[in-house]
Amino acid sequence: MNEPIVIIIITVIVVIFILAIFFSKKAIIKRKLKKAELKKLSQFRNGDTAKIVGQVELVDQALTAPLSGRKCAYYYAHVEQEVSSGKNSRWKTLIEEEVSGEYLIRDGSECAYISSKHVKSYIVQDRKFRSGFMNDASQALERYLNNKGYESENMLGFNKTLRYKEGILEAGETIAVFGCGQWKSASELGLPEELGQVLAINDPDEGTVYLSDDPDTTKNTAKANTINQSDNYGQADSRYFQKTSESKYFKKS
Q: CB-based burial of residue 66 (10 Å sphere; 0-12 exposed, 13-18 middle, 19+ buried)?
């Protein structure tokens, strides 16, 4: 193979790799949130579309993340198996799920609630596990696999090569959300009445609400009508920043 052809092939591979990264779900969501105008909840008027940044506050009982056992308001779990074909191998997705509980986004004395079912999210996957040769899956990982109809071993009793990733939204964590806001009474949204007026986040004209807990998306990158983020969020009541596994609105039986 002559040199020009080799260069062309390498160039094509590099371009495909760059495009794959640029148009990945993670990149699209981060790019959207980083470029969006940031508004405090107190600045929102009905019909405004912008990004809000606030802290997760549980409304109901916390969820339990399936891989790490952490208490949370929302979790993303992804399990892949390495499969081989001749000399090549690739990672095949076995399980990918996102589960959301009831939670608010708190900005000082105001709060928002995501009403839309059309949410594109990128949750930082801060827990990673592996199982395979000479490395058995833990009881928690095996239990999760079994609940989804899978096992960590093959028919001969050898460990499959698996990797697991998990990300969560926990109480007190800072997140960014982009969407169209409408002020509604808490009772209209099925929330505790003592919350008063809540900003319901719905689909903007583009048709999708974007959400992420990546620090790049929660920085103060607004274009206009914004104040330094430390001023926006630093004065909020400290009780809203406490990382608790149980909501103050949840009543035990």
A: buried
**Gap between the Cα atoms of 204 and 178, Å rounded:** 8
Query: Rounded to an integer, what distance in angstroms lies between the CA atom of residue 226 and that of residue 78?
Result: 36
Distance, CA of 3 to chain centre? 45
What is the token pair recorded at 49? Answer: 């579309």
Q: Domains of the chain: which residue ranges?
A: 3-241
For 14, other C-beta atoms within 10 Å of its C-beta total 10
> Per-residue pLDDT averaged across 123-130, rounded?
97
Q: Which two tokens stand for residue 193?
A: 């009445």
Dihedral in degrees, nearest 10, Cα atoms 196, 199, 200, 204: 170
pLDDT value of position 235: 35
Q: What is the C-alpha separation between 119 and 32, in angstroms, rounded? A: 13
| Contact yes or no for 130/31 (Cβ under 8 A) | no
| pLDDT for the residue numbered 24 | 73
